Amino acid sequence: MRDWNQNYLDGFIPWDTDTPEPELVAFVGARHLKAGRALDIGCGTGTHALWLAAQGLDVVAIDVSPRAIECARAKASDASSARRVRFEVLDFLTSLPAGGPFDLVFDRGVFHVFDAAEDRARFAAHVAQCLAPSGHWVSLLGSTEGPPRSEGPPRRSVRDIAAAIEPVLEIDALHATRFGPQGPDAPAAWLCVSRPRAFPAQPSTLRE
Predict the structure, then answer these.
(1) Rounded-to-integer distance, Cα 71 and Cα 12, Å
(2) Are 167 and 121 a contacting pair, CB within 8 Å?
(3) 3-state SS class at 25
């Protein structure tokens, strides 16, 4: 299993950015989210959590890496929005954070790190437990599109995504994008937006 804390201790964190993810910015703007509760899973050094707090949301930001949370808290010491954020060391696969239900759950490149289908399903189930009835989960994850590469984010297929999410949440939108804000050469990604189900997932139709 990858030692994420060691990555932060070594300073090898190519996924961490000081600029908010454009897809998140666009989603928050389109939904006019000016209040409510947000959960940032795999918050890293706190960029997205602090940005969400600056928009007016109360944020719980979690990461499995103690060093990441230490860096996030240090970054927050200079941010006026820090009073709206609680940073916490937590493994989302094994524990649920306090402070919910959440109107927005966000992860940038966390859902896709799990190779086992049962782990991705558990992740989605935990998100479903955290969401408010009208809430949304916004996930940016590595895509199977684009040329071959030996580095960068893990690749997950649409089938992988649906198999994990569809049983517990309704997939509201799924479209191709790129990890931002790295420009046109950034790795291909999926943006998946899900919400709580009004009805249980129905079985696929079989015609006789």
Answers:
(1) 14
(2) yes
(3) helix
